[in-house]
Amino acid sequence: QPAECAVWTSAEQIVLCWLLVKEKDQGKQAGAGWKPASWTSVTEALGKEVSCVGPVKDAKRCTEHYRTLKKNFVDIDRIRNYSGMGWDSTLQICTTTDEVWEPIIKQFPHANYWCFHLFPIYNDMNFLVSGVVATGAGAFHSGQTPQSS
User: Fold this and answer.
1) Each residue of 84-132: pLDDT tens digit?
2) Is 78 left (phi over 0), alpha (psi -120 to 50) or beta?
3) Pairing of strands 93-95, 29-30
4) Residues 17, 122: contact at Cβ < 8 Å?
5) Has this prediction a pTM greater than 0.85?
6) 3-state secondary structure string across 24-89
């Protein structure tokens, strides 16, 4: 029988990130990942901080969901850097006109999701992945003049 999928509410995601920020502040981040003890501590605290929906958010489910959040962060960060794209820092959502969205969505089809959805954990995720996740910032693209140092 397949394992029941974990459903994550916005509140659970916010608390998960908040707990990981606390872990990072205490020096418990290990490169691009987390020490196993961090996941144990996070899963215990998550259950105390918020009423979780669905199956228990154990270390494995938290780790898997954190991977998804990192992917979402990289997608949002990439979209935010397109010319003409704005960012509402209060709502934590990309803002622009349909004319700017159209070519982005053609090149990056699942960007359509971010036209209408908030990412309230952007700042926390930025802190958590800063320096450990490749976002494409500073990458050279053919046809682009290299920057001198």
Assistant:
1) 999 999 999 999 999 999 999 999 898 999 999 999 999 999 999 987 7
2) alpha
3) unpaired
4) no
5) no
6) HHCCCEECCEECHHHHHHHHHHHHHHCCCCCCCCCHHHHHHHHHHHHHHHHHHHHHHCCCCCEEEC
